[in-house]
């Protein structure tokens, strides 16, 4: 079945460590997004990519980095420069067409100890 | 600035009807989305409105008034599995999604 897969589901890290969250899709979609979700707040866009080998900063890109070397993969690295990294991270891809509703991965919950 | 407002929490009874409101102020408008998100899970798409009026999809309906910057999600015949957060999101003139903080819906037997 086509879909979008994130891993790991849960991740713990110590302060000062970089961590990479995986996002893979087999829907053959061009666009992929990374969002961060915190309690009491709306989803906030970290980075997005409209096509392979190209990506753009979202509203809260500081302390994060991404790559888009393959169409199906859009990994997110949370660097030690991110001051408050504990959050729920969601990868998504829009359905091509007029509505463009988002398909989300299962999410990755990162906790900094 | 751009803003989406929706109530933080609502409580309803199993079998009843509930209406979740969303008001928005955005730079342009290219559609409004509703998503459902169960605790600890990813959001799933419920509905999309771009023209004024009511869109019905089974037990769920969504209404839009662009002139008032207002939408609501109507859930009928509530079931316990409808306990979740409901997220309102608006696509602005740059085709960027602006998200509300979500409404947590609690269903009581």
Protein model, in words:
- The complex is a heterodimer of chains A (113) and B (109).
- Chain A has 113 residues and is an all-beta fold.
- Chain A is 0% helix and 49% strand.
- Chain A has no helices and eleven strands.
- Chain A has strands at 4-7, 10-13, 19-25, 32-37, 44-51, 54-57, 64-66, 76-78, 87-94, 102-104, 108-112.
- In chain A, β4 (32-37) and β5 form a beta hairpin.
- Chain A starts with a strand and ends with a strand.
- The model of chain A has no long low-confidence stretch (mean pLDDT 94).
- With 109 residues, chain B is mostly beta strands.
- In chain B, 0% of the residues lie in helices and 57% in strands.
- Chain B contains no helices and eleven strands.
- In chain B, the strands form two sheets. In chain B, strands 2, 4, 5, 9, 10 and 11 form a six-stranded mixed beta sheet that branches.
- The radius of gyration of chain B is 13 Å and the shape is globular.
- In chain B, 37% of the residues are buried.
- The mean pLDDT of chain B is 96.
- Classes of the chains: A mainly beta (113), B mainly beta (109).
- Chains A and B meet through β10 of A and β5, β9 and β10 of B.
Which helices and strands, and how do they pair?
The complex is a heterodimer of chains A (113) and B (109).
Chain A: E1 4-7, E2 10-13, E3 19-25, E4 32-37, E5 44-51, E6 54-57, E7 64-66, E8 76-78, E9 87-94, E10 102-104, E11 108-112
Parallel strand pairs in A: 2-11
Antiparallel strand pairs in A: 1-3, 3-8, 4-5, 4-9, 5-6, 7-8, 9-10, 9-11
Chain B: E1 3-5, E2 9-13, E3 18-25, E4 32-37, E5 44-49, E6 53-57, E7 60-65, E8 70-75, E9 84-91, E10 97-99, E11 103-108
Parallel strand pairs in B: 2-11
Antiparallel strand pairs in B: 1-3, 3-8, 4-5, 4-9, 6-7, 7-8, 9-10, 9-11
């Amino acid at each position: 079945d086509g879909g979008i897969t994130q891993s790991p589901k849960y991740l713990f890290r110590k302060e000062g460590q970089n961590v990479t969250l995986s996002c893979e899709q087999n829907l053959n979609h061009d666009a992929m997004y990374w969002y961060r979700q915190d309690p009491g707040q709306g989803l906030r866009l970290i980075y997005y990519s409209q096509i392979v080998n190209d990506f753009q900063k979202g509203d809260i890109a500081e302390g994060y980095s991404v790559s888009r070397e393959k169409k199906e993969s859009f990994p997110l690295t949370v660097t030690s420069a991110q001051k408050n990294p504990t959050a729920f991270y969601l990868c998504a891809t829009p359905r091509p067409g007029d509505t463009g509703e988002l398909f989300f991965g299962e999410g990755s919950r990162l906790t900094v100890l | 600035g751009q803003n989406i407002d929706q109530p933080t929490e609502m409580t309803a009874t199993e079998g009843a009807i509930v209406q979740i409101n969303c008001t928005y102020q955005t730079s342009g408008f290219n559609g409004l989305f509703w998503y459902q998100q169960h605790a600890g899970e990813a959001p799933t798409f419920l509905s999309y409105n771009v023209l004024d009026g009511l869109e019905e999809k089974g037990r769920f309906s969504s209404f839009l008034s662009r002139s008032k910057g207002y939408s609501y999600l109507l859930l009928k015949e509530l079931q316990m599995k409808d306990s979740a957060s409901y997220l309102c999101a608006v696509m602005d003139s740059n085709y960027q999604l602006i998200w509300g903080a979500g409404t947590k819906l609690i269903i009581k037997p």
